[in-house]
Specification:
The chain is mainly α. The chain has 21 helices and no strands. The N and C termini lie far apart (81 Å). Keywords: Repeat.
Length: 335
């Protein structure tokens, strides 16, 4: 009853109408929100479902389930409009289309439907739009499709999407576009052996290195997040990471004065993961010119006892333990 009542009220109010659910997950959230407003201290009145109300609810649910494919087809049509590639055109409709598609493909079943209607190439093509807003929207949708979705990854990869995303990360003038592309790249790559190999073959680690060097906080965090995935996933890339100077870069970022706290936290974790899984990386971390133990202890003095930095503090202590243990081991070997 409350669903019918509140949706009916929403239809009479422009602001509420914009908040009406667009998919089944949105419907669940809508019901939860409305239920939270009810007086749960009193028993809910039992109301028999009339034929009118039953038809109303059946219509709502059928609309969500039956019309989604038709709606996605219409949204894709908007994304093939010539305005997508005309820098002087108004693309507000296309921006909204990407936003709506993003909501739909959060449901893996709708992501599969989008593939079946050959929608993936359309989304990937939008990455070539001169409109930054559309590039960001397309990257977001690609990431949403591929996240925890092997089917999405496998069918995106043949579309040259990885190289397009790498180019955006490397060459774009808008940091937000770079961040969205890195999000999509991460979702496309993780937990897919095919994508991991392609990433390596396309010199993906070089792109990550340059993204880290920008010192843009969101880029650093997302780059190091993906780096940590590769460090924890397999040993086969660790020689490559060391030869490229990733330890040097992480240490440099770690103690840069103009870097943010979250980036420091992620870089500390990367150094710890490398050090504990690869002896050569541990040896790199102990190079005298880094003075890493001293630097870490100084940082520890600054953040110790502050709940805001609890994760970073834990990572620093763990890394110091590894470094001290190896020092003691080397002393014993000398004796």
């Amino acid at each position: 009853y409350f669903l019918e009542q509140n949706m009916a009220e929403g239809n009479n109010d422009q602001g509420n109408r914009e908040r009406l659910p667009k998919n089944l997950q949105g419907l669940l959230n809508f019901c939860t929100e409305i239920t939270a407003r009810e007086d749960t201290t009193q028993p809910s009145p039992a109301v028999e479902l009339s034929q009118e109300r039953r038809e109303f609810l059946e219509k709502v649910l059928a609309g969500f389930q039956g019309d989604v494919a038709k709606c996605m087809a219409n949204l894709l049509k908007k994304l093939t409009d010539p305005s997508v590639f005309d820098i002087n055109s108004d693309v507000s409709e296309q921006e909204e289309a990407l936003e709506q598609l993003g909501e739909y493909v959060e449901d893996i079943n709708y992501a599969i439907d989008l593939f079946k209607m050959n929608g993936f190439p359309t989304i990937v093509n939008v990455l070539d739009s001169p409109h930054y807003s559309l590039q960001k929207g397309a990257a977001q949708v690609i990431g949403d499709i591929c996240q925890n979705n092997e089917m999405g990854q496998q069918n995106m990869l043949p579309l040259n999407v990885m190289q397009k995303l790498l180019n955006i990360i490397d060459n774009h003038s808008d940091p937000e576009c770079m961040v969205k592309a890195l999000y999509a790249l991460s979702c496309l790559t993780r937990e897919s052996e095919m994508a991991e190999k392609m990433f390596s073959d396309l010199s993906g680690f070089c792109y990550l290195m340059r993204a880290i060097q920008t010192k843009q906080p969101k880029l650093v965090v997302k780059s190091v997040f993906l780096l940590n995935y590769f460090i924890g996933k397999t040993d086969k890339y660790k020689d490559t990471l060391l030869s490229m100077g990733f330890v040097d870069q992480l240490v440099s970022i770690l103690f840069s004065e103009d870097i943010d706290d979250t980036s420091r936290e992620y870089c500390t974790l990367s150094l710890y993961n490398l050090s504990t899984s690869y002896d050569k990386a541990l040896q790199e971390c102990q190079r005298p010119e880094f003075n890493l133990v001293f630097q870490l202890n100084e940082r520890l003095k600054t953040i110790s006892g502050n709940d805001q930095y609890q994760e970073e503090e834990n990572y620093i202590k763990s890394l110091l333990e590894v470094l001290h243990f190896n020092d003691e081991k080397e002393d014993d070997d000398i004796r």
